[in-house]
Design brief:
Elements lengths: L1 E2 L3 E3 L9 E3 L9 E2 L4 E6 L1 E2 L8 E10 L9 E7 L2 E8 L3 E8 L8 E6 L19 E10 L2
Parallel strand pairs: 1-6
Antiparallel strand pairs: 2-12, 3-5, 4-12, 5-11, 7-10, 7-12, 8-9, 8-11
Length: 145
């Protein structure tokens, strides 16, 4: 479950506190997406704070890339079906997407991230044969007003 006061991170061998769809098993500190889209399913507890205010979705992300061959990837970010952001990722960075808190449900929230530039490391001379797109380190929602 997410709240305004926590973030979700990933550890190898530990079940994440949120649901993941189209991701590989968590590694130490992150999880890789497996295709052209991925989803994060989560419940949200407002902690008694009123709806109608603004909030930021903060994703600590990176992308599969190969210097001078495959420089980065595009990401489109949707929360409960509404597009709230996009980013071309070339290095690990926090991506912040603002939205109205009315968009959040107490249960059954879906964060969808389209990764159209997903790639096979093996095609770039690396040993990994997995299809890789988004490298996700953490998910956080912060109230801004």
């Amino acid at each position: 479950m997410l709240t305004f006061d926590n973030s979700v991170t990933f550890l190898k061998g530990k079940e994440p506190e949120i649901g993941l769809r189209n991701f590989w098993e968590p590694e130490n500190g992150f999880v890789w997406s497996t295709g052209k889209w991925c989803e994060v399913h989560f419940a949200f507890d407002r902690g008694g704070k009123a709806a109608g205010a603004a909030a930021d979705l903060i994703l600590d992300i990176d992308a599969f890339k190969v210097p001078e061959k495959f420089d980065g990837q595009n990401f489109m970010i949707y929360l409960n079906g509404l597009r709230i952001g996009s980013h071309f990722c070339v290095r690990r960075t926090p991506v912040i997407a603002s939205f109205e808190t009315d968009l959040l449900n107490s249960a059954d929230n879906i964060l969808t991230i389209d990764t159209p530039d997903v790639a096979l490391p093996k095609e770039h001379g690396l040993q990994d044969s997995r299809l890789l797109g988004l490298q996700l380190f953490s998910v956080q929602i912060r109230k801004t007003t």
